[in-house]
Design a protein that fits this description.
By secondary structure, the protein is α/β, with parallel strands linked by helices. It has a domain of 169 residues: P-loop containing nucleotide triphosphate hydrolases (Rossmann fold), CATH 3.40.50.300. Helices cover 36% and strands 26% of the residues. It has ten helices and ten strands. The strands form two sheets. A six-stranded mixed β-sheet has the order 6-7-8-3-9-10, with helices on both faces. It has a four-stranded antiparallel β-sheet with strand order 2-1-4-5, with helices on one face. The longest helix has 14 residues. The radius of gyration is 18 Å and the shape is globular.
């Protein structure tokens, strides 16, 4: 389970997130929607501490995974990032073979011997619905894959180290409709094992893949509820206006 409690986040003097409270249940897909610059990607990156890499940022409040404050002094960031995988907007495979892309995290973290690594690569590619397409060309460069295949490869790479949470920042925005459909089917199947949080500008995609949806605007979480309710019967006028295209 993921929780944000009274979260305020600042880039220097800029107040990017304002008093965010959200509880995300295990084995669900939560979508974060809202206009550009509303804070949804900043919120997503809190949960694997990617914002730590940006100068002059500060956090007030608590971000918890399974009841543990991930910004606590005892938390090792490298260990946290094994537990919380991240998939970015554009596919970012390494200049390595397909096999070595997936094996990378295992090797870096010294997780298992050669047999175990081979097993995890196959399991992760299967989980990412890519195995049947690449099983005969594992030694070939990842750059030979299509954009959609590269994105599923990046998902397999994230899954290889056995995370419990998967963060996805616009994972299909750079892909064609067929590849987007495959990513959406994959998200649906992965929630059996993982807790997934996805940022998307595509409201139809949010409606298709998520169980719950949070609508962000100007750094505030305006509304958070079951996806069906958000899209069919929102409680806040701001949400209604955004969903119906009156602004954003």
């Amino acid at each position: 389970m993921i929780e944000a409690k009274n979260v305020n986040f600042y880039y220097g003097d800029f107040h990017a997130l304002k008093n965010i409270n959200m509880t995300i249940d295990a084995h669900t897909v939560t979508a974060c929607i809202g206009p550009s610059g509303c804070g949804k990607s900043t919120f997503l990156r809190l949960f694997n501490r990617m914002n730590d890499l940006i100068d002059k940022t500060r956090l007030k409040g608590e971000c918890l995974i399974d009841g543990v404050d991930i910004y606590g002094k005892s938390v090792q960031v490298d260990e946290l990032r094994k537990k919380v995988g991240m998939v970015f907007q554009k596919p970012n495979p390494f200049p390595k073979s397909i096999f070595e892309n997936v094996a990378y995290g295992l090797r870096v973290n010294r997780l298992g011997n050669k047999k175990y690594i081979t097993q995890r690569v196959e399991e992760s590619l299967k989980a990412a619905a890519l195995w049947d397409e690449v099983k005969d060309k594992l030694k070939k460069s990842a750059f030979e894959l299509s954009g959609g295949q590269q994105q599923r490869l990046c998902i397999a790479r994230a899954l290889a180290v056995s995370p419990s949470v998967l963060l996805m920042d616009e994972p299909a925005s750079a892909l064609d409709p067929i590849s987007t459909s495959k990513i959406e089917e994959l998200i649906h199947s992965l929630k059996e094992k993982y807790t997934i949080v996805i940022v998307t500008h595509n409201m139809q995609q949010a409606a298709r893949v998520s169980d719950r949806t949070g609508f962000f605007m100007l750094g505030e979480l305006i509304e958070f509820n079951e996806t069906k309710k958000i899209f069919l019967n929102p409680e806040k006028s701001e949400t209604q206006n955004y969903i119906t295209g009156r602004f954003g």
